[in-house]
C-alpha cells in the first residue's frame, strides 16, 4: 500500500486506531484490535442478530471496555460507531448494505468542525476549495470519510454547515502524532484541495437535526437524529474516562497514605458516574418510546456531561498529585494511567463543545 502520510511509517501505527490498512494486517504487540471484536458496527442491524441491540446494551458494551487502554478503546469504538451510523443512515447507496458480515465490515472515519475550510456552490453539488480537519476518529481501513464543511447554500442560523461523504481517494493526508490530544497513535490531518462533492453525498444540518434518512425498519438507532446520537456520545466516552480514572486507585497501598484526598477524588468519580447514568436512562426511555430528544434536552445533556467530565478531571488531578515526584514503578504506572485518563477527559470536552457549536450555531 502506498504511504499516504508523506513518509510516516504506517506499520508503526497503533492498532487501537483500528490497525493498518490491510484487511489481514497483524495486530501489533500490546495493542487492541477493536475491529476483530466487532466493536465498530454495533449500531448496525446485523444479519445474525435476531433482536436489535438496545441503547442500554450498547451503552454497556462501550462502558465495558472503558478501562482498557486508558479509556481510549471506548472513545475509538464509540465515535467509530457514530461515523458508521451516519454513513449508513444518510448515504446508504454509497456505503452499501447495512448488514455487516465477516467480509464486508464498514469502516468510516469522521471529523467534526474544520480548522479552516471554504466551499462554493457548483452545478449538481458543492466544490470544496480547501480545508484542513483533525479526525475525531480515524480508521486506516476506511474507504470513506465524513466531514463537516461550511454550506455555501445557506446563510441562516443552524444551516451554515453541511455533512459530506468523501472517498479516501479524494483526500490528502499529512502525518501527525496527535488527534484531540492523543499521542499513542498517529492520526493524520485531512487536507482537501478542489474536491467536488455531488449532491447525493451531502446532507444539510437541518436534516441531521430533524432525523431524516434511512429508517431501517424501525431500529431505534435509525429513528434518532444525528444531534441525539452525538449527544449520547457526549455521555458514553466519559464512562470510559471514569473507569480509567478509578481503576488505578483500587487497592493501591500508596493511596492510603492520603485517605482524605483519595476518598474525595473517588466520591467525585462516583458522582460523575451517577450523573452519566441518569442521562443515559433518560435517553434510553426516549429511544424505547420513540420520542425524539428535542434541542433543549440535547443542550442540557451536553452541559451535564461537561460538568461530569469536570468532576472526573478534578479527581484525576487530585489522585495524580499523591504520586507526584515519586520514583516507585507502581506510582509511575499510576501517574501514566491518570495522565491518559486526563487526556481523554479533555478530548471529550473538546468534542462536546465542537458539536455543541455544530448544532447550536456560533
Question: What does this entry look like structurally?
Answer:
β2 and β3 (125-133) form a beta hairpin. This protein is an alpha+beta fold and 362 residues long. The protein has nine helices and nine strands. The chain folds into two domains: 1-52 and 66-207, Beta Barrel (Butyryl-CoA Dehydrogenase, subunit A, domain 2); 224-360, Butyryl-CoA Dehydrogenase, subunit A, domain 3, CATH 1.20.140.10. The longest helix has 32 residues, at 329-360. Strands 4-1-5-6-9 form a five-stranded mixed beta sheet. It has a four-stranded antiparallel beta sheet with strand order 2-3-8-7, with no helix packed on it. The chain is globular. Helices cover 43% and strands 15% of the residues. It starts with 54 loop residues before the first helix and ends with a helix.
Average pLDDT for all residues? 69
State the CATH topology of the largest domain.
Butyryl-CoA Dehydrogenase, subunit A, domain 2
Summed up, the domain count is: 2
Percent strand:
5-15%
Q: For the terminal residues, how far apart are their CA atoms?
A: 41 Å
Oligomer: single chain
Kindly state the number of beta strands. 9
Q: Report the CATH architecture of the largest domain.
A: Beta Barrel
Low-confidence stretches are: 1-30, 177-185
The total of helices stands at 9
Which descriptor suits the 3D outline? globular
Quick one: CATH class of the largest domain?
Mainly Beta
- Supply the helix-strand structural class: alpha+beta
